Amino acid sequence: MRAPASDLPILFDDVSLVARGVTILDRVSLTLAPGAPSVLIGPNGSGKTTLLRMAMGLIAPTRGRVTWGGHEAAGPVRRAIVFQRPAMLRRSALGNVRYALAAAGVPRTERHARAGELMALVGLAGLERRPARRLSGGEQQRLALARALARSPEVLFLDEPTASLDPAATKAIEDIIRDVVTRGVKVVMATHDLGEARRVGGVILLMHRGRIAESAPASEFFNSPKTEEARRFLAGELLM
């Protein structure tokens, strides 16, 4: 099937996912539209990563449907995802980005200049020749972002992009996210860090037991949560 002109909006229509008798997503209805970032929060096992992977098109629902720009089964031409622990190729940092550009179909004559631009965008200029696997954790995460951006995505999915990073590395990642958003890329991100959700989020989606327990603009969600689940989660209580 021909890819749609736009992947947005991404629509979850009464979507469930059951694996080995366990319900992972439970009748989720959700629209991911252009604009401000959408930030998924919630306890471990609430379905955040699964929802990201399904929105990317990596897994299919067992019930309901997901559409991209009004189309089903559309290839991820305009989508990219960065996982919590991205794998680094056995080559230089620049080589990783050039490989991603080649995979995205960028002409060979344009790859060197484009790779340099992406390295600068993520703050890795000067580290082009460093073996990717010898970069720090924060640098590897920024390199993974550069590789994802090599696809010139319309939608960028981020799964816990700052997990286990120190405050300086976290700020560097958040700065890149803000830059990407200003360039018109829709960011959909999962995080456990409520402070980060406040700083980055345009819309907060609280997940609990595979469902969207509450969805609201960040200021509204944090200042006047509507559901008991949201109030308890913000108070640091364990959601069961």
Description:
The protein has 240 residues and is of the alpha/beta class. The protein has 2 domains: 1-78 and 153-240, P-loop containing nucleotide triphosphate hydrolases (Rossmann fold), CATH 3.40.50; 89-151, no CATH class. The protein contains 8 helices and 9 strands. It has helices at residues 48-56, 93-103, 108-121, 137-149, 167-182, 194-200, 218-223, 228-234, and strands spanning 10-19, 22-32, 38-41, 63-68, 79-82, 155-159, 186-190, 203-208, 211-217. The strands form 2 sheets. It has a 6-stranded mixed β-sheet with strand order 5-6-7-3-8-9, with helices on both faces. It has a 3-stranded antiparallel β-sheet with strand order 2-1-4, with helices on one face. Strand 6 (155-159), helix 5 (167-182) and strand 7 form a beta-alpha-beta unit. Helix 2 crosses helix 3, helix 3 crosses helix 4 and helix 4 (137-149) runs parallel beside helix 5. The chain is globular, with a radius of gyration of 18 Å.
